[in-house]
Records
---
Amino acid sequence: QVQLVESGGGLVQTGGSLRLSCAASGSIFRINAMGWYRQAPGKQRELVATVTSGGSTNYADSVKGRFTISRDNAKNTVSLQMNSLKPEDTAVYYCNLRNSYWPSSQDYWGQGTQVTVSS
């Protein structure tokens, strides 16, 4: 099992910044990916950004150039720096860890943290 504890989030005005952090503990495989997904009311959960244990990153087109994901493999933490926030970024943000054991993988989720961007 893997436990994910998120911190950060809150209310910010358009153009502002927030930083989300997530700490993972438990059975973390050597090959894994950590990242952030978000879900707005009435919408499906969507990928925001991920980073693999090897350092490869992937971003949703909507956040490229504004958000930066980073991780500390020694501490099993992942952070998301969110700049130039827009009202459409408002959502519950979920931390994710995906343990990979070819050809399968297993996802774990945090409890979610609310990000609200006011216009």
---
Amino acid sequence: QVQLVESGGGLVQAGGSLRLSCAASGIIFSIDTMGWYRQAPGKQRELVARITRGGGTNYGDSVKGRFTISRDNAKNTVYLQMNSLKPEDTAVYYCNVDLYVGSSYWGQGTQVTVSS
């Protein structure tokens, strides 16, 4: 089992920045990829960014150039630096980890609200 604790969400004005964190505990030695997804009201959950244990990254098209994902393997924590936030970034952001054995775990979600 893997437990995920997210933090850093909140309310920010358009153009502002937020940093999300997600700390993993449990069977952490088997974590492969860590990432962030988001879900806005009435929309499907979508990829924001993912990062492998080796540091390879991929981003959703709507956040490229504005968001940066990073990871501290020693702390088993993944971060999402969000800059130049837009009202359309408003959503619940979920942390996700994939284990080498194929299992996947989700955090409880943290609300990000961007006002215009």
